[in-house]
Predict the structure.
Amino acid sequence: MKEFRGRVAVVTGAASGIGFALCQRFAAEGMHLVMADLPDSPLDSAATKLRAEFSAAGGEVLTQPTDVARWDDVAALAAATKAKFGGAHIVCNNAGVRTMGSIWNVSLEDWHWVIGINLWGVIHGIKAFAPEMIARGEPGHFVNTASTVGLVAMPDNGPYSASKFGVVGVSESLLDELRLAGAPIGVTVLCPNRVPTQIRQNSNRRRPSGEPVSTHQSGDAARAVQAPGVAAMVLDAIRLDRFWLLTHPEFGDELYSRTRNIVESNPAPPRA
């Protein structure tokens, strides 16, 4: 997808973090925006800020309170997008939460909560928007937010890692299926590493079990990439039709190590 001005972008988890940075970047390109987030999020204030910053760019902003874990909410989001703008060109399935703790200690309700938002939210977004985008036949793009923890698992991140591994798999399947359908729609799977956002703080307020999510940010602060930088990477990935997007290229060493361990631990059977 090369042209952005006058096109329509839908972003979930749009009130803060990477989601809001994506909205800022798209607005600067003159796109119309549909910002979706939970009803108790600062969605309206985020939209007001966006309108003030980019009033001269020409894009309109629509807000739609949405719980991506609920199919009816995401279907309503797609319907509102079509009614206001005629449909979406870019869909960023970005909403996410997390919980931390050993797999056997995380409550089942927290497991359902994380999987419901992080993985079912992406599935709902694809199912709600893809058929109409394919039928319309215009260039488009899906951006599904996964994580490097969806490529290499870490301890105390079982539900989060499981959901993000799922997003990677769904995204790979989506790319192949769109190609088989001959649709001019690309897919990018965004795998952030260290990006300062409010995901842990927001998760603390909403976690069903009430158990706090650690706010400790591990890793080297000097390696952090700010959300606007991630948004710029996403825009480039859409323009170049890139599937994989890692915010930290140095993470490739861990990927090589994991792949090498898989291959070397499972040698080919001897020839007959």
In short: The domain at 8-265 is CATH 3.40.50.720 (Rossmann fold). Residues 215-219 have pLDDT under 50 and may be disordered.
